[in-house]
Amino acid sequence: MAFDNTINYAAVFNRILDEKFYIMPRTSWMENTTPGIVWNGGKYIEIPMMDMDGLGTMQGYKAPDGDLTLEYETKELEYYRGRNFAIGRYEMDLTNMALTAENALKVFLAQHVTPEVDKIRISRLAQAANNYGGTCVNATETSSITNENILGLLLDDIATVQDQIGESEQLYIQISTTLKNVLQQSTQITRYLNVKDFQIKSATMRLEAINDQYLIGTPSSYMKAAFTMNDGRTTGQTVGGLTFNNLAPGINWIVAARPVADAISRPQVTKVISPDINQEGEFWKIMFSIYHGVWTMDNKAPGLLVNMDTTLGTMQVTSVAGPANGQTQIAVNATPNRDSVLMWKAQASTPPEVTFGTALTGTNGWAVLPANGVITATNGQMIAVALCGATSGLPLSSGSATIVANQG
What we know:
- This protein is an alpha+beta fold.
- It has helices spanning 9-20, 94-132, 150-165, 177-184; strands spanning 44-52, 68-76, 79-88, 137-139, 171-176, 193-200, 203-210, 213-218, 228-229, 242-243, 251-257, 261-273, 283-296, 304-308, 313-314, 317-321, 327-332, 340-347, 367-368, 374-376, 382-389, 395-402.
């Protein structure tokens, strides 16, 4: 039986994406939160930023004139990810090809796409909070959280955010499933739990809430403050996805008002090529890609609090001879983004100390590691490299190595 080439299978599969993707992520509350965003499907979006003067004293019956400005801030969708899949011509007949591909797409979304999107969004919120510092970060040793104290700790963090932005703003609490289980064993929890409707696109979901604030249980493996992204091609990275490897502290929970974070995603099946026209072989080729990004609004930072563990992550640091005399080239397994930066410092005998909660700054000898990793340093000294908040200097992870410098 000949295949019906008049059917646009890419369009069929994209309707599945529209139905499934936006309600599957545990971070769907971040999706498209800012009204008036201008996005035409490309790499950049424009976010409206409004500012206006406050009240002034009336003179007679006339109020003072004030300024109201509306400007657009350009943000980049940083993540462009994808996979191609093949289904052999003889693995199915005409009637079940679409069903087989549909099932494969659903499994791919559930097992790989949405978990990666969730992990990136959660990690980026943690890095943003670490960059803001102040009330945006609360450090609690995870092992010290018990069913006797967890309710008080969580309610205190909710109160901290509400003290900054008021009680009228809806809050979203992203909590590890492990700690949610501990919370549910609290003797007082039944006084505070309820269930609320949450609307996303055309779907309505029922979510648990604590004190009327959404409570979203999330696998502990998602709750990390930094990650390494596998490219799907390089040896050791062919499986794709993300790797954490204790790269940063674990996150106990996030308390956030919805306007704090905004995420845009565009998953799509770009092409479905039939065996009749596929020049690579007798198989269906299904091409999937997703363009997405997440960012926080600086003026909304008071509405964000991340409670994280106090244990710094561990980075792998390597040093090889640099291109010129006296230079070394440093490489690490962590990639900074708009909220983070790599800092370095070298000294004899032992690597410089990095402590959770203590900012690393230029005044105490730390410097930003260049993008190419090439610095001038003394051969044989010890170097420490830390992933820190871009402006706060607060470290999330660190690693050390013996410097190997070009000896000319």
